[in-house]
Structure formats: structure tokens, C-alpha cells
Amino acid sequence: MDTNTTPPGDLNDVERRLTEWQPSAIGLEVDRLMFAAGRASARSGRIWPIVSAGLALTVMALGIGLAHERSARLELAMQLRDAAPAVAPARGSELGPAESTPTSPTPAQPASYLAARRALTEDLDSWPVPAHSAGLGEREPAPRPTVLTSHSPVTLIEP
Amino acid sequence: MPGIDADVLGRLYRQHAPALRLYARQWPGGGDDFVQEAFVRLAGQKTLPDQVLPWLYRVVRNLALAAGRSANRRRRREARASAPEAWFSVADDRIDADEAARLLAGLALEWREVIVARVWGGLTFEEIARLVGCSLPTAHRRYQAGLAELGERLSGQWTRTLRLPAT
């Protein structure tokens, strides 16, 4: 049974009558369709408004965060600046009487860091003189280093 | 319109929109909106579907079924049940267009949609079976049953008489 194509001769009377009935085409306008199709195609790109809105929100959040971070940083810097003079004596007091008083007897070596720091902060004239500089004229010359020559790989030439 | 040429779309619309609207009108509240929406969706396709006519009928049917589920459309269906719109512009010499529409509207929906898709839509029975979601014999049986019922109603119908010019 070929049900897909019905030759016109095989149509019964009812089918023949029905084919004479023409569906109404009143109100069907191609221009209206084209307008609607064009409007629909222009409306289809909804991804860009969403992306733009997301970027705008991100920029706003970053701006607020940066402004907050800057104000907090400035406030912290101001607190540090205000607290700096008060902190220095406190640090000195924490060191104890032995270090806070310059006249206190401290068993420091003359070439030590502590002695050098004291000399820098208090009086450069009291810079400790190293022992080897003090007796420079009486010191023996330093031995020259041995030199390795190219033709005598096993022996070192004494200068 | 990104994919389909406007000339092709216009030609398809002129050629198939009347029968497609008749098919859409088989559902309550169906009409121009569904046909236009189907063609707008066709315009949005990148390429023409392989079988564009069954594709259009399927879109219209899906739209009609979806709209029929809404309460708004149901109210409109009740309002229009007794007065079908002008489905046909021309009937035959024995019946006028309004009476033809009334006769067709009196059939069961499952018969009507097969008859409309076949007679005016030009779909094959295989395409109709896929469209309606039934087997091929079922589609053919519905078609024959609808034709038989329509034939009975047509045979017992009032026939138009020729009016003689008034003298």
C-alpha cells in the first residue's frame, strides 16, 4: 500500500472536493514576517549585555575594594607615624639599664659590632681602632700566595 | 537573518503559509501567531532543514500544543469553539467557505489534523505519522475515517442554489 503519494485519479469524490477548497491567505503578509524575523535576529545576541553587566560589576567591586584597601593603608601609615616617637623610648626601656645608659660598663670587644654601633651613634672619634691597624708598621709582610704555572703541574713555584 | 536567504523565506511563506495557518487553526487559539513564529524560527536556522515543510508543521504543532496547555489559550478556545474563523477563501460550487470550515471543524481533532496536513499541506503519510506521533497505518486510518465522516456530512449538507438574476 503506497500511502505516500496519491495520484489525482485515485482521489475519491470527497478528496476531490476538499482540494478545491482554498485556505484563506487574508492577513498573511511577507513584510510582517520579515520585520519579525529581523527583530528576532537582532534580539538573539543576549550574551553581550550579560558579559558587559558582569564586567561592570567586577570593575565596581574592584574599585570599592581598592578604595577600601587604600584608606586602610593610609590609616595604618598614619598610626605608625604617630606612634613612632612613642615607641623609640619604649624600645630603649625594654633593653634594660645596661644598654640604655652609654656609660654602663659593657664587656664589648673593640672590634665587635656593638662597639662599632656605639661609635656610630655616639661619637665617631671613639671608633675602635683594630689591633692590626694600630701596629701596622711593626707587622711582618704577609706571605705571597703560591702561583701555579703551566709547565710544572705538580710543583708550585715559590716566588 | 543569519542563515536563510530572505527570498527563499518569502517564497516559502507565500507558498505554504495559508495551509500552515489552516493547520494551526485546528487547535484552539492557533492562527497567524504560530505560523509567523514558525517562520521566524526557520529564519533563525543556519541552514534550511532537510525537509522544511514537515519541520514547519512540527513547529506549528508544538506551539499549538504548548499554547493549548495554558489557561489563557483555553479561555480563548472556549470563546472560539462555536465560531471558526474564515478558514477557506473559496470552497466549491456546492458549499460556501464558512460552511466548509464548519464541517471541517466538526470533525475530531486527530482526524482533522491528518486531513489538513495531507490535503492542503501536501505531507506524505510517513511525514504525517512522524508529525502526529503515531504509526503509519494509524495515520492512514485516521485520514480515511475523517474523509468518510466528512463525506457523510457533505452529502447531507445544504447545497448552494443558483440565484437567478432578478428581472
Notes on the structure:
Chain A is mainly alpha-helical and 159 residues long. Chain A has six helices and one strand; from the N terminus they run H-E-H-H-H-H-H. Chain A has helices spanning 13-20, 30-43, 47-95, 97-100, 113-121, 131-134, and one strand at residues 22-23. The longest helix of chain B has 20 residues, at 136-155. Chain B has 167 residues and is mainly alpha-helical. Helices cover 64% and strands 2% of the residues of chain B. Chain B is globular and about 50 Å long. Residues 158-167 of chain B have low confidence and may be disordered. The interface between A and B is large, with 30 and 43 residues. Strand 1 (22-23) of chain A pairs antiparallel with strand 1 of chain B, so a sheet runs across the interface.
Properties at a glance:
heterodimer; A: 159 residues; mainly alpha; 1% strand; B: 167 residues; 64% helix
Work out the largest interface and the residue count of each chain: A-B, 30 and 43 residues
Strand content of chain B: under 5%
How many H/I helices of chain B? 8
Cα end-to-end separation of chain A? 122 Å
Q: How many distinct helices of chain A?
A: 6
What would you report as the Rg of chain B, rounded to the nearest angstrom? 17 Å
Q: Which stretches of chain B are poorly predicted, pLDDT < 50 over at least 5 residues?
A: 158-167
Break the fold down into its secondary structure elements and pairings.
The complex is a heterodimer of chains A (159) and B (167).
Chain A lengths: L12 H8 L1 E2 L6 H14 L3 H49 L1 H4 L12 H9 L9 H4 L25
Chain B lengths: L5 H19 L7 H12 L8 H17 L2 H10 L7 E3 L6 H9 L3 H12 L4 H8 L3 H20 L12
Helix pairs in contact in B: 1-2, 1-3, 1-6, 2-3, 3-7, 6-8, 7-8
Task: Give a summary of the structure in a few sentences.
The complex is a heterodimer of chains A (159) and B (167). Chain A is an all-alpha fold and 159 residues long. Chain A contains 6 helices and 1 strand; from the N terminus they run αβααααα.
